[in-house]
Amino acid sequence: MVKSVALTGATGFIGRHLVESLLAAGLQVRALCRHPEKARLPAGVTVIEGALENDASLARLVEGADALVHCAGLIKAAASKDLHRVNANGTARLVQACALQPRPPRLIFLSSLAARHPELSDYAASKRRAEEELAQQAKGVHWIALRPPAVYGPGDRETFQLFRLLRHGLLPTPALESARISLIYVEDLCEAIGTLLSASIESGSLFEIRDACEEGYSWRAVAEAGGRHIGRKITCVPVPRSLMRAAAVANHSLSRITGHVPRISPGKVRELYHDDWVCRDNPLTRLSPWRPKVGLDEGMRLTLNWYEDHRWL
User: What percent of the chain has pLDDT over 90?
Assistant: First the structure.
């Protein structure tokens, strides 16, 4: 029976929701934090100061834990080596720390649907490499990897930019009528992770995971769902790939001068213009009691209300 859970990435968007979910389930939670004084985690969380690059702090994190959820990672960086250092090498170090324990914790790794196509971007390649490191290094460790699509919900700063555009009545989209994407609401993802902490599922399993919509969503469907709750018609503005690529190249070049992380990279453009990000199977619904509860319409409403309540919009 799982009583204590170690967690990386606790201060991120998904991590903060997961902390709340684990605490609500009555579990003991310890979290790896680079800067504990800035973490602002709920009372009851044991904070372990350290980072994925520090073997000693990883050993303290997993010592005696029944399970480990690995959420930490970079989604963008100034250089590809940084993505691989954190996403791939960090995962390898964490798995090794688990394997050294007398009773290794069950490990749940939060990968990404992008890992399905590592040729598209450095981020996708780093996530695929992290999965490979997990498989190679997990000697005696029971592990499961999840590949969620775009995750959205209250407090997310990435999809917040989309909601800002929707409020202005516009949604720039890839110029692909055929493009479809799966989505998952953050609380549904956290419930899935909670289920996996004790579910009887074979070690080494890798699952794509989504909400209940089998066919995924078109960009127009996303715009219409947002428009219903914002109270205005949203115009989709198709952006040619060549224009987006030129903007990404310019942004990436500028970041090398300024030292800032680029907002968009050529790899991210290739991800955006890939026309099939649909998870066509939802195996956890067959192998466990977990069921997604929140669809796009309800998820957009809940997220928009949170942004408005917290004066982000």
Answer: 88
Residue 301 belongs to what H/E stretch? Answer: helix 296-309
Phi-psi region of 45 (alpha: psi -120 to 50; beta: other; left: phi over 0): beta
pTM of the model: 0.96
- Which amino acid, residue 267? G
Tell me the C-alpha distance between 15 and 245, whole Å.
31
Classify residue 215 by its DSSP letter.
Answer: T
For residue 116, the 8-state DSSP code is G
Q: How far apart are CA 7 and CA 11, in angstroms?
A: 10
* Residue pLDDT, tens place only, 138-166: 989 999 999 999 999 999 998 999 999 99
SS3 147: strand
CA dihedral sign, ordered 238, 183, 181, 83? positive
Round the average pLDDT of the chain to a whole number and report it.
95
pLDDT of 254 over the 90 cut: no
The C-alpha atoms of residue 3 and residue 197 are separated, in whole angstroms, by 10
Domains with residue ranges and CATH for the chain: 4-153+184-214+278-293 (3.40.50.720)
